[in-house]
């Protein structure tokens, strides 16, 4: 029997071996060959990657800068990469952005279901990460624009912003007493966080929620959303994230966040009918009872998902904007002096602080902020997109489910859009924009896109600019600023979805002397 079976066994082993080799070769070939090449794209460059990881290693420690360098090296306003197993289109100039989005805004309007975002948003029940095809995103986005972040609602929170701007001035004055340098990065983050918590949860800023340290929990949420999850690029290796402890951290954070939101929502339900103004939780609870929204907006998790949006999208973006603007101002004392002169002249030297009613007169300040967001967009690769259907760009077919990175930072440095001195910090280049109080020009342009582009662009522009302008105006009005002796303020960046300075901005400051005092 044995002698009869042996040749069959050998043959079987050989066949299995050959089949295994074929499957492996086909698999590696699939990984090595870009899907775009198969889809006939002679014109779009695809920088060569490595087996399995593709071009992931080329992202470096500061991905938007590495991608800009890669695009420049290949003279590729549009390039096609493979990040792990994910086909990815990278857009790096204003013209390319127009060519991609003008005809394909709908096709480009998806978001990839990233691992951490999916968990934190209760399975994509929010505005930032939810898929655009379903009724939920449309309803939630409509609610954001018309209720949560509308111009009247934002105006209604003026007292909160002015109160927190005054608290920031007091905190800076106290930390700088006796000539000590101030950690402005930390002060700005605390202020921005407080504004959002008061606006979202009410006057107590969430402090009523007893033992839960909401600031620390939300901070961890932000870190997890910016962390690199292997599963987002090579799903079959997702188990590595568990070994790295990321799953455990994510679960802990999710449950802490959830417990916090449950308490906040219960507190709001218990005090319903009280007449002390609506915060965002009140608005969301009201919408959930509204027949116009009931069919799509119908469970508590959606309220929690949208609250998370407000925090992740609104807190450190505003803080980073002021942080980078102050960085550039201290590096350019002439521009700092000009902006200060404008603020002090427009507000009046006898006043304590800048009020929101003063802001429309501060034209140069708005140019400075615009320039800062051109050179340092706080979300340099926007929030990742994903094509929801195939589309054609420059004659090349881009398949559905291609990830899309818009390099807002590279676009802000594009010499075709900004001239040969694009790298120079020069607020005057925005002089020709007449209506700086209107947020529309942000979204009309393809050359300045810190708030994104098309139908998924940021609905919080109004909210964000009112916070940023007020905080910056007060810092310039109330204090003189300079780097500590012998220190050159650097431009090193910390990575994450939102990009802050790597080293905190520590400055020496002196309180402005009021006339006659
Ligand atoms: C300076 C501050 C801010 C910057 C630079 C910023 C930037 C961005 C960017 C780049 C996007 C992605 C756009 C795209 O994919 O095209 C975005 C989306 C979003 N932002 Fe902002 N943002 C800021 C402030 C805010 C604030 C204060 C809020 C709300 C309180 C907010 C809420 C949102 C939401 C809900 C989305 C998702 C929109 C969607 O996917 O439909 N943002 N933001």
UniProtKB/TrEMBL annotation:
Keyword Nuclease belongs to the record: no
Domain of life (superkingdom): Eukaryota
PANTHER family: CYTOCHROME P450 71A9-LIKE ISOFORM X1, CYTOCHROME P450 FAMILY 71 PROTEIN
Necessary cofactors: heme
Phylogenetic lineage: Eukaryota, Viridiplantae, Streptophyta, Embryophyta, Tracheophyta
Keyword hit for Oxidoreductase: yes
Ranges that cross the membrane: 12-28
Pfam families assigned: p450 (PF00067)
Binding of heme, residues: 458
GO molecular function terms noted in the UniProt entry: heme binding; iron ion binding; monooxygenase activity; oxidoreductase activity, acting on paired donors, with incorporation or reduction of molecular oxygen
SUPFAM superfamilies for this protein: Cytochrome P450 (SSF48264)
Keywords: Heme, Iron, Membrane, Metal-binding, Monooxygenase, Oxidoreductase, Transmembrane, Transmembrane helix
Family: Belongs to the cytochrome P450 family.
Protein's recorded name: Cytochrome P450
InterPro entries: Cyt_P450, Cyt_P450_CS, Cyt_P450_E_grp-I, Cyt_P450_sf
Organism: Paspalum notatum var. saurae
